[in-house]
Amino acid sequence: MKFAWFAGCKIPYFLPQYERASRAVLEALEVELVELEMNCCGYPVRHQSFEAFILSAARNSALAQARGLDILTPCKCCFGSLKQAEYWLRESDSLRAETNRQLDEEDLRWEGAKIRIRHLLSVMAEDVGIAKIRAKRKHVYDGLKVAAHYGCHALRPANVVRFDNPLAPTLFEKLVDATGAQSVDWPRRLDCCGSPLWEKNQALALELMRKKLEDALQAGAQVLCTACTYCQIQFDTVRAAELNAGGLEGRLPSILYPQLLGLCLGLSAESLGLADNRLDASLIRNYLG
Q: Domains along the chain?
């Protein structure tokens, strides 16, 4: 099983433990990653120049298409961005023609549905499969309750990303349950984490996050689990630096899914970058059997 690896821009700098843990887990699950000379997904410029956004995303897909590889990204923002570009390139003949005219300069071409854009969670659930994950476990969590946080970009717009049911998704919970942990049902699980508002209204961004944390705690969660770059930065980095309300910041640490899974696969905390998380989530190791 082989994929073109697309870490995106923010993960290597702001969240290197996400890439480390993802690579370690994928290797343990016999997934091969191929490095290509990719560029930004285009997301940062989409409101400045739609055409530049599309070209940036299309170049990445064209590179993968030239090698006959699906793209695998752990970043839900990049996933959504690449899927959006794919959608509009299919919808617009003129946009596709102009994009390919510019790609011709590198002997590249965007050729539609020849490859798929995949998020890490989709590959885990659908390509690797729940059965194989369970078969590869060396340890199983016993009694650990986890609040799975989907994030926004992987679920919407549903007709574009086609990740899971946007109103009642189950993919993430199934992956959590595959570790032996128990995913909890919490009313705010699909609410925004607040990250998109951080540069515009920090007080509101923190309030959205606080409400989610309180909701997860009331549902009995002991740890929050993410698979989104921005959500993990919000629940871990921003929270450790900004949120100080009645000890909430220390009561529900946030962990990345490949970190949660990696311990079950017998991988070391060091290889998973657990020490790089701002909030201490070492409590989860107490539940490993």
A: 2-118 (1.20.1050.140), 136-287 (3.40.50.11810)
